[in-house]
Every structure is written in C-alpha cells, then in structure tokens.
Amino acid sequence: MKKTVTLLLCAVSFLLSCCAVSHKNPQETTAAIETAESSLEMQPVERKTTATVETAESQDSLSTETSQEDVDPDQKMIALTFDDGPEPVNTPKLLKLLKKENVPATFFLVGQNVDKYPEVVRSIADYGQGIGNHTYNHQDLTTLNEEQTRDEIEATDQAVKKITGEKPKYFRPPYGALNSSAAAWINRPIIQWSVDSEDWQSKNQQLIIEKVISTAYDGSIILLHDIHEATIAAVPEIITTLKNEGYSFVSLDTLLDHPETNENYYGKNDHRPID
Ligand code: NI
After folding, report:
1. Cα–Cα dist 274/263, whole Å
2. Is the bond preceding residue 173 a cis peptide, omega within 30 degrees?
3. Ligand 1 mean position, distance from CA 247 (Å)
4. Is 225 a catalytic residue?
5. Active-site residue, from 134, 225, 228, 271
6. For residue 134, how far is its CA from the centre of ligand 1 (angstroms)?
7. CA dihedral 244, 246, 250, 252 (to 10 degrees)
8. pTM exceeding the 0.70 threshold for the entire prediction
9. Residue 60: active-site member
10. Segment 98-154, tens digit of pLDDT
11. What's the CA-to-centroid distance between 257 and ligand 1, angstroms?
C-alpha cells in the first residue's frame, strides 16, 4: 500500500514537474527576454518619457500667459483687450478665434454679466485668457461716492473669484474715468488703452479693422468690445494683418512687464500716476 502511494506520488510529482517545465519554461524565457529588452531600453525609454512631459508642458503653456515671456523684447508687441462682456454668443466665438491664432487677450468684465453668464467666464479662464475688473454696473466712478465705488469693485471681484478662484489683478474704469481716491482704493494697476477701435460707435467690421490697423503701434494696448458681432468679425483680419506687419500679440503681463503699481497704464513703458 505504501509503495503504491509512493509510486502514485512520484508519478503525480513527475507529471506536475513535466507540466511545470513545459508551461513554465516558455513563460520564464519570455519574461527573461522582456526583462532584457526593458533593461536595454531603460535609458532611452526614460529619456523619451522626460521629453514627452517637456513637450506637453510647452504645448500647454502656448495658450497661457506664461509662454509670452519667451517673446523677444525687441520685437514689436501689442496687447488686445475686450471690454463689457462676457456675452453668451460673441465671447465664446472670440475665444475660439484667439485660440486658433494662439493670441492672448484680457477681458475686462462687467460684474453683472459675470453673474449672468458664469459659464462664459469659466471658459475665458479655461482658455488661459486674462480677466480684469470693469465695475459691476459699468459706472463712471467719478460720479460715485466712496461706498458706491467700493461696492462696484468689490462685487465684481467677488463674482469673478467665485468662478475662477482669483480676484482680477487688473482694473479698467468705464470711460477711462477715475479719480485718485477711487484708484487708491482699487489698489492695483489701472489699464487704460492707447488704440481705440471705436467699435462701440461704428459697429462696422471694415471700419473697426481700418481703425485698429491704421493706429496700432509697438507697445500699444488695443480697446475692443466682445459684446458686438462686428468686433468679433473684425478680429481675424486685425490679427493676420498685424502679424504680417511683424507684431507679436502678448498678454498685458508681458507688454507692461508685470505691472504692480497703482498707476494708469497706457502701453509699454507708458504709465503715469493717477491725478
Ligand atoms: Ni466699458
């Protein structure tokens, strides 16, 4: 009986080892080859991975303001600004246009429109475009008392912050109108402009194009309004023409070299105390 059991056990273990050999060996061989291949490829693979990450990062930053730091400071520069939005039809159209051309811009938003169209504000931020404060009710601040002024600024800051997590770092007064007490309270760079498209007046695609092209200069800040269809229609030709004239479109950060002081900024190297 014992012999039979021993024999059986031997037979079973022989069969098992046969199975193990026939199945295990090819697996081991494949595994060994794979290990050898991966160790051979270890360094190139690592380098490839690093390169891929770097490429992804630089592609990401193309649409953000940071990439603008790479712009040659001797190159002709220009910054686009769009006021009075967001607007639910025209602003999203414009965002796509700017993305296609890889052009940065700053949107000076009116607080009440921010509250009305939060998803458009979200898109502006997602597209990596700049956001500025343009008061809550598009008020001429020189006609308001301090408390009213504070309300206009604060309500807009909060409306934007609720969506993007950050309060706008730039301010543009409606009509460019500002006195020193309001400016001191606003306490951030005041972005004026140097090229007025007069789009709100003409609302004419061709006239907007001509006005901007004929008055643009190196270092200028262009004033447009993304609430008008004619403005959006004018943007592609404005971009193409000025690019052909050698201009780089840059963010306000780049054009104004990271402004911090509570002054009026009209363009590159052009800022003046508020009086
Ligand atoms: Ni305005």
Report:
1. 6
2. no
3. 26
4. yes
5. 225
6. 7
7. -120
8. yes
9. no
10. 999 999 999 999 999 999 999 999 999 999 999 999 999 999 999 999 999 999 999
11. 24
